[in-house]
């Protein structure tokens, strides 16, 4: 995940403040967990995969 963060987000931005960098990382984490598809999870997001996993576990 940290490699993705560096490659997909941080390499392309210049931050003026520490707070701006922090908000950028928070935004990326929300994207990574909620919307970014993962090939190892059948092209689902992490949230979709967890919902399905726990629904099937009941």
UniProtKB/TrEMBL annotation:
Per its UniProt record, what Pfam families does this chain match? Answer: rve_2 (PF13333)
Describe the location of the Integrase catalytic domain by residue ranges. 1-51
Which superkingdom heads the taxonomic lineage of this protein's source?
Bacteria
Please identify the protein, giving its name as recorded. IS3 family transposase
Q: What is the lineage of its organism?
A: Bacteria, Pseudomonadati, Pseudomonadota, Gammaproteobacteria, Methylococcales
